[in-house]
Amino acid sequence: PFCACFAKVEVDVETGKVRVTDIACAVDLGRAINPSLAEGQIIGSVSMGIGYALTEELIFSDDGRLLNASLLDYKVPVSLDLPEIKALIVESHEPSGPFGAKSVGEIAVDPIAPAIANAIYNATGVRMRELPITPEKIIKALQEKKA
């Protein structure tokens, strides 16, 4: 499968907080045998990608103990954290797939973090190259840019 993603963000340069305001993901999945299910797969993958890009991080102590082992501490986005996700199905014919279909599930996770990082660059002029892109990392990058 092939996939392209476009993201729009707002960045508070005083706090480093990023809010994804708009996101669209187009997936060439061959023939959409069940378009409604395929759209749901894309939306789920995009929401996973947003968490991967902005909030999800395993934190370990010096002795190797996981410090954020609960969902209170390991932040995954919930529906209130997400923008409206535009899932675009692009159909083509895949001769090796069943009924001309390709896969759809995980491919839409891949371009989300780069799209958000590029949107942050467009908004602030700083390149974020390490995930997750936390407010602390954005503030540090903005301070380094000033210096």
Low-pLDDT sequence parts: none
User: How many strands appear in the DSSP assignment?
Assistant: 3
The largest sheet has its strands arranged as 1-2-3
End-to-end Cα distance, whole Å, is 43 Å
Largest sheet: 3 strands, mixed
Shape: globular
Q: What is the H/E order?
A: EEHEHH
The assigned structural class equals: alpha+beta
Gyration radius, in Å: 17 Å
Helix content, binned percent: 25-40%
Query: Strand share of the residues?
Result: 15-25%
**Helix count, DSSP H or I runs of 4 or more residues:** 3
Quote the average pLDDT: 94
Folded structure, characterized:
The chain has helices at 35-54, 112-124, 135-146; strands at 2-11, 18-30, 85-91. The protein is an alpha+beta fold and 147 residues long. The chain has a 3-stranded mixed sheet. It starts with a strand and ends with a helix. The model has no long low-confidence stretch (mean pLDDT 94).
Spell out the key features of this protein.
single chain, 147 residues, alpha+beta, 3 strands, globular
Short précis:
With 147 residues, the protein is an alpha+beta fold. It has helices spanning 35-54, 112-124, 135-146; strands at 2-11, 18-30, 85-91.
